[in-house]
From TrEMBL:
InterPro entries: FN3_sf, Ig-like_fold. Residues 1-18 form the signal peptide. It comes from the Eukaryota. Keywords: Signal. It comes from Geodia barretti (Barrett's horny sponge). This is Uncharacterized protein.
Amino acid sequence: MEVKSLFFFLHVGLLTLGQEILSSPKDSTVFLHEFAAFSCWAKGDEVTWKLNGLLLKDLPPELRKELIFNTSSYNSTLFEELVIPSKPERNGTTVQCLGVKIDGSSAESEIGTLIIQGLLMAVINLRAKGDVSSVTISWTAPFSLNVTGGDRDIWYSITIYNVTEKYYPTAIRCTDCTYISETHYTFTPDHLSPCDVYNFSVYPLQWSWPRREQWHYNLI
């Protein structure tokens, strides 16, 4: 009786330990039109996935054909990477991997989420305020896709042209204006001359055209 009981519990234990998730997919934040990669380490006979709670076989065909899989194995551990194109309609997609045994039993991972941070359009509300000691420009950076929870850093570049002489605009050198993480920047008299007119161009370091605005900087 004891031998049979021991065999039963050992058999159940082996079935239970046959599949296991070792590493779950994490939230992935990417820009629009990039690729998001989710990885999974598992024990079992194969790795498969759920997107928005649906198994791969139940996904719409147009989504299924976009997915890319990279698979490898190390001893008894399986690794698979799922790559998803970051189209607007994929924003908020939940991703879960499963370690599956040949008998159909499976272990499910924690859920990761695809967060798509939209491309920045040209900045708007570009404004300048100044006094005798400095000029501060500020702007609003709208996304082409509304996103909450994105963590991708956005950087801006500013160029300045002295356009006092209409036909001979002169570029003003500003070594600190290339990588700016805030939506404002302050210029001092080291950058600008009194009573001249300037064009400021501000654009995100992605793919968009800048918006320009003139400002008359009057240093008394």
